[in-house]
Design a protein that fits this description.
Helix content: 10-25%
Order of helices and strands: EHEEHHEEEHEE
CATH topology: Archaeosine Trna-guanine Transglycosylase, Chain: A, domain 4
Structural class: alpha+beta
CATH superfamily: Hypothetical protein
Largest sheet: 8 strands, mixed
Number of strands: 8
């Protein structure tokens, strides 16, 4: 299965659907099943932001309880769309959808960047320890 590693708290916020999209500087042509892996790194500066703390708390998490080094969910990668316009509060994607609110706050919507659209996010009942890699990587289930 293809796997995408993400730094915390971004990975958990994405899996918990507080962010509907994952933003990347690079495009993928892959479409299909995708597992979400949490890297060992936690962005502690982001975790100190009051809005991020509130979103995590809503789901019973604090910085020190975020899972790291584990595959935590599966989903289906449906689209990879380029950001065509962006300002301080919203972005426009190549298919015409506008991103704002928490989705915009929790992403990096630079013009020319990419937005990964997924469906069927399923958190795993038991997280799978795994060493992450850059880019999309393969994990034998």
């Amino acid at each position: 299965m293809k796997v995408l590693s993400m730094i915390q708290p971004w990975a958990s916020l994405f899996v918990l659907r507080e962010a509907q999209y994952e933003t990347r500087s690079w495009k993928t042509n892959y479409r299909g099943p995708l597992a979400i892996h949490t890297s060992k790194k936690i962005d502690k500066a982001v975790c100190r932001h009051h809005a991020v703390q509130a979103l995590l708390k809503k789901h019973g998490y604090v910085t020190d309880s975020l899972p790291t080094g584990k595959i935590i969910a599966t989903c289906y990668l449906e689209h990879c769309l380029q950001v065509t316009e962006s300002n301080e509060t919203s972005a426009l994607l190549e298919d015409g959808r506008r991103v704002s609110g928490n989705d915009f706050f929790l992403g990096d919507y630079k013009i020319g960047g990419y937005v990964w659209v997924v469906r069927n996010m399923q958190s795993l009942n038991s997280f799978i320890p795994a060493k992450g890699q850059l880019g999309l990587w393969e994990y034998d289930v």
